[in-house]
Amino acid sequence: MKRFSILLVLLLLVGLVVPALAQGEETFVTVMHYFTGELGRAALNDIFTAFQEESGLTVFDNPIGHEDFKTTILVMAAGGDLPDMFSYWAGARVQFVVDSGALAPIDDMWDANNLSDVVPASIAEGATIYNGQRYLIPFGYHYVGMFYNPAVMAQAGVTEFPTTWDGFIALCDTLKAAGVTPIALGSLNRWPAQFWFDYLLLRTAGPEYRARLMAGEASYTDPEVVRVMELWKGLVDAEYFVPDANAYDWTDAADQVANGEAAMTLMGTWITGYWNSNGLIPGENYDFFPFPAIDEGVPNVALGPVDGFVMSANAAHPNSARALMAYLITNLDAQAIWAQGQGALSPNVNVDPAIYNVVMQKAADQVAAAEGFNFNYDLATTPPMAEGGLDMFAQFMNDPSGYMDYLAATQAVADEVFGGS
Description:
CATH architecture of the largest domain: 3-Layer(aba) Sandwich
Helix content: 40-55%
CATH class of the largest domain: Alpha Beta
Shape: globular
Number of helices: 19
Mean pLDDT: 92
Radius of gyration: 21 Å
Largest sheet: 6 strands, mixed
Number of domains: 2
Distance between the termini: 35 Å
Strand content: 5-15%
Structural class: alpha/beta
CATH superfamily of the largest domain: Periplasmic binding protein-like II
C-alpha cells in the first residue's frame, strides 16, 4: 500500500510538471528512464550535460527506480501522460506499447542520420523494428555470461573452464569439494533467475522453440520445458547454489562472488560496472566464461537485453526528442561514456573497441561469434506473461520440488494471455 501511494504521488507530480514544460517553445525535452544506479545516473548526467551544451536544449530528466519503472510507464501510457521520450527494453515490451498506440515511429530520424550504417543489422532488425516501422534507438546492450572470481577458481585448482554441460557439472563438484559454493543467485526481484531458464532452454530446445514458447505457440507443460526445470532442479538439489536465493538481490550475489562466498554468478555485463565501482580489476578480480553447450546441434546464441529510447506518440517536443535520440546513438563520446560507466556494449559500429576493458572486449567477441542474439525472458514475451513466468522462477527457487505444478499454473497464465484453451 505504501508503494502504491508513493507511485500515485509520483504520477501526480509528473502530470503537473510535464504539461507545464510543454506549454513553451521547443527548448525542452522531457525524459524518463530507469537508470538510477550510481554509475548509470552519473554517466547519463555527463551525457545530458554535453548534449545541452551542444544543442542549446534543456533536458528535463526524471529517473525512476528500475522495478517501479515497469509499472509506472505502463500506467502513464494508459493515461496518455508520457514524457517526450523514455528508456525502454527492446523486444516484447516495446511491442506491447507500440500496439497500444502510445509510441511514435522514428523512421524519418533514422534515415536522416543514416543509422542503418551505424547500428549492426543483427541489433537493428531485432530491436528497432515493430510492425514494419522503426520505434527504438538502441543505447547500449548487454551479454549474459558466467562471471567468476579468478582467485577462488585458482584456489580450487580450476585452470580450464567448461564448454559442455558435463564439464560444468564437474566444475561445480570440484568447487564443492574445495569447500566453495559454486553459484550465487540473487533472485529477490525475480528477474535474475530468468537467465537460468533462458540458457537451459536455448541450449536444449533451441531458439526457434523458445520463440514459439514466448509467443504462446508452445506450452509450459511440453517435455522441452519440463526437461529444463529438471536440469535446473538437479543443480539446486546438488546444493550448487547459495541457499535462500530469493533473500538476495543481484548486487548481493555479485558481492558473494567478489568476497569469495561463491565462485560465480550468471549475470549480464552490467555487473562489470558494479564491480569496477567497488575497485575490482577486470581480468584480475573478475572474469567470465560463456554458458556451456548442452545438446549437440543446437545453435550457439547469445542472450541479453538491449536498452533503448522511444518517443511518445503525443510528445510535446518531438523535434527535441529526435535530436536527443540521434545524439545518444551517433555521438561517439556519449557512447563511450555510457559503455564505460554502465558496463554496456555499444550498438554503434564506429565506437573504438579500445574503450572496453579486457572482460568487456571478451563479451563483445562472444556476441560477434554467436549465431544469434536473444532477448532475456521478460523482454522476449509480453509483460503480462513475463509476470507469470517470473513468479514461477521465484517459486521454483523457494521449492524446486513443485516444478510441475508451477509449470501448469504458468501455462494457465499463458492460456489467458494468449487466448489458449
